[in-house]
Amino acid sequence: LVVLFTIYLWPQLKKPTRKSALYLSGVFAGMAALYLFLKFSFLYFSEEILMGYEGAYNDHMWVRLVTFCHSMWEYTVLMLYPIHLYFEKPYIYFTSLLSFKGIAGLLIILGSVTVGLWSLFKKDRKLFLAIFWFFCAMSPYVGIFPVNAMLFDHWLYLPMVGLMMLIPIFYERIKKQQVAVFVLICLLATAFVGRTILRNQEWADPELFFENELYYDPGSSRAHNVFASYYYLKGDTESAIIHYKKSIEIEEERFGSWSSLANIYVLEEDWANALAVHSAMLFVWPDLDFAYELVIDIHRANDNHVLADAYQGLWDRHQAGEELTREDLEEVLLQVT
Questions:
Q1: Which stretches within the chain are classed as H helix?
Q2: Distance (Å, whole) CA 218 – CA 130
Q3: Could you tell me how far CA 80 lies from the centroid of its own chain?
Q4: What separation in angstroms does the CA of 46 have from each of 51, 53, 148, 150?
Q5: N or C: which end of the chain has fewer CB within 10 A?
Q6: How far apart, in whole angstroms, are the C-alpha atoms of residue 70 and residue 76?
Q7: What is the tens place of the pLDDT at every residue in 268-285?
């Protein structure tokens, strides 16, 4: 941004000020270079920068740049009129530009940069400042260097200052058309106030909020888990059970959904389902002491001593320090049955 302002103000600067501006730009460029060097050398503590995407996205700049082009379309829609809002957005990377969002995002970038450079060589350089402010502020997230996410709306906070600069620029060009300006302001105010009210209603009502989340991302295990917890606290255990099961179906290793589901069955003294859930948990995590204890107790209460002894043997092996696996459980239970 320092370099950007130096370029923008360059024709107005006197010779001593130009030297100071160049010196300051060099200092900040050096600091940025030092930071990047330290980040990817001495301060580089993990080979996996983006959780779960240690492959293509982290390893290939092309994939990150293509993904940013797709994200640019999402950012543009979000800035112009925010629709399809939901919290649990999945991380999806792209390897090709050949899609509507990819091509549209690329055209938005190229068109904006072209207009900005055209403005740079005109007397009125405000468009250059506004457009390049946006892209300079967005530069850490473009994909030249991998970061810990692909798309966050809060990354737009600083870049949107550039978008705000476009408002007075546009107003200067139409301010003589007072009726048109008044109508435009009324339409924009109505649209954005209405959208804000609708979104606030979703945030104010947990049930409405999670219904919106699952409408846009029905495959979110976390959303189903949190929605289930909401229903449980509300006293609707039947709905809670449905969403806990759906959360587990989507992501088997979501421990919170398993334990909450098991807890509901225990509190309701539904021992058949409690047994089924705790037994299934052991196949995912063969080292759960509380699950062994409950499964053994229920089998003994049902006079099923053969299975109780089998689980007791597995538990004894675990307590002796053996690291059990799913295969160990399957082998022992197969012998019993």
A1: 2-9, 15-39, 56-59, 61-80, 100-120, 126-138, 160-174, 178-204, 206-216, 221-234, 237-250, 255-267, 271-284, 289-301, 305-319, 326-336
A2: 38
A3: 21
A4: 10, 13, 11, 18
A5: C
A6: 10
A7: 999 999 999 999 999 999
